[in-house]
Amino acid sequence: MATQPEYRGRFAPSPTGPLHVGSLLTAVASYLDARSASGTWLLRIEDIDPPREVPGAADSILRSLEAHGLYWDETELYQSTRLEAYAEALDELTECGDVFRCCCTRATLGPGGSCLKRCSPTLEDVTALRVCLLGNAGFDDRILGPQQPKHGANDLVLRRKDNLYAYALAVVVDDAWQSITDVVRGEDLLFQTFAQLELLAQLKAEQPSYAHVPVVCDASGIKLSKQAGATAIDDKAALKNLRKVLELLCQDSAQLHAGSTRELLELATSLWNPQALQARRALVYP
Question: Which regions span the lipid bilayer (predicted)?
């Protein structure tokens, strides 16, 4: 009988600003899921989009995680050190997949942002590299249940017009390289999972299990994000912050007495119940 692989999870923030409540919630959820399975929890800094990055943000994220007792296993991975691996994966997809040049602008792309090979770039045109997808990769989400793609054949960018590698390519290459077995992340990334599963299949890589947690919104229903100016978490109020995100995650541990972040995280790990989120589609803060 085949044995189950050791649980390997990850938290993968982009250094576009400091952690806010929404990103802390995702970090806590992925951390608790890994620790409750006696697994490994990795930290990956997705720093492959220099125009959007904020100087010092990566270090700020590391310090905030440490302040909240969220210590990761193994050395943190910076995607900016993995460009050669992305180039090799792109070559592999070009050989076995349906990769094509595209000169479309956002204004000319069709529904879902797909080109569907309708443009005809010249040799002089600045182009992106896209890959055709079948749009048939469903999966069983551990929180949301069975998921099926809502669109048929489509395509997505692997390398942008500015020659930067796209998130869609980098994330699957690194999940495969780090042997990630379980991905716990925000529901706002749910739609990307279908494409990522197809890319993993094309690269002949193992497909992880997915659990998408509800996103945190403000009172008007707008998702908390760095781009929308979400307030950075106060590292000096780490215990209070952890209680708040555990409450948002519908965890019983939010109400238990704990004198330190370590004690609260140990309680939260022992009582971790991701199924408590099944009835929640959005989390409102404050």
Answer: none
| Architecture of the domain delimited by 8-284 | 3-Layer(aba) Sandwich (3.40)
pLDDT per position as a tens digit, 54-73 = 999 999 999 999 999 999 99
Can you tell me the distance from the alpha carbon of 122 to that of 250, in angstroms, rounded to the nearest whole number? 54
What's the chain's Rg over C-alpha atoms? 20
Closest CA to 238 of 230, 250, 246, 226: 246
Report the Cα–Cα distance between both ends of the chain, in Å, rounded: 49
Task: Return the number of other C-beta atoms located less than 10 Å from residue 72's C-beta.
Answer: 21
Instruction: Write out pLDDT tens, residues 125-169.
Output: 999 999 999 989 899 999 999 999 887 889 999 999 999 999 999
- Full-prediction pTM beyond 0.90? yes
Q: Are 45 and 61 in contact (CB under 8 A)?
A: yes
Reply yes or no: is the peptide bond before residue 149 cis, omega within 30 of 0.
no
